[in-house]
Design brief:
By secondary structure, the chain is of the alpha+beta class. The chain folds into 2 domains: 10-121, no CATH class; 123-161, no CATH class. 16% of the residues lie in helices and 35% in strands. It has helices at residues 10-19, 107-121; strands at residues 23-25, 32-40, 44-53, 68-74, 84-87, 90-97, 134-139, 142-147, 158-160. The strands form 2 sheets. It has a 6-stranded antiparallel beta sheet, covered by helices on one side. Strands 7-8-9 form a 3-stranded antiparallel beta sheet, with no helix packed on it. Strand 2 and strand 3 (44-53) form a beta hairpin. The chain is elongated. Bound molecules: zinc ion. Zinc ion is lined by residues 127, 129-130, 132, 147, 149, 155, 157. Zinc ion (ZN) binds at residues 127, 129-130, 132, 147, 149, 155, 157.
């Protein structure tokens, strides 16, 4: 099935971002406009890669590039890996990625549902044991939130959903 792509203007995207409590941020090496919103104060954030080109405010190669939502957590420098990006002494690591959001007529609805998934993925409170982010996991007895540092540090901090 061939999707029918639509052009999303920088203004349309900006107002969508505002309505969903996102703010534009500077993101190292990004060539598209990136928006951010806190997922768990100081420890995790949600980013939207808009596919809107920074230079000319236009969608990049309409149809070829999709909008993406990711969640990043702040980790201490002893735990950096290849997916880590350094932002002025703050270190963030990608911990969740959405399915791509194609630039089709329903892009707002589709993007909103990815944002809801991202919000669900991170508990609004930090780990009660070590103060890192807590993320949604699937267990034998259902879904629960547990410390992102498990199993790296062995922290067993958790919260029910
Ligand atoms: Zn912990």
């Amino acid at each position: 099935m061939a999707a029918r792509y639509v052009e999303i203007s920088a203004e349309e995207f900006e107002s969508f971002a505002e309505e969903n409590y996102f703010e534009q941020i500077e993101y190292p090496r990004a060539r598209e406009i990136v928006y951010a919103r806190e997922a768990q104060a100081g420890h995790a954030r949600i980013l939207i890669f808009s596919s809107i080109h920074i230079g000319n405010g236009k969608g990049r190669d309409v149809g070829k590039d999709a909008v993406r939502v990711i969640v990043q957590a702040k980790v201490d420098s002893n735990n950096v890996d290849t997916q880590t990006v350094n932002v002025s002494s703050e270190t963030w690591r990608v911990i969740w990625k959405s399915k791509r959001v194609h630039r089709v007529k329903n892009w707002r609805k589709n993007l909103e549902s990815r944002i809801v998934d991202a919000i669900d993925y991170v508990h609004p409170d930090p780990c009660p044991e070590c103060n890192n982010a807590m993320i949604l996991r699937e267990g034998k007895y259902g879904r629960f939130y547990s410390c992102i540092m498990w199993p790296k540090t062995g922290c067993r901090g958790r919260q029910n959903t």
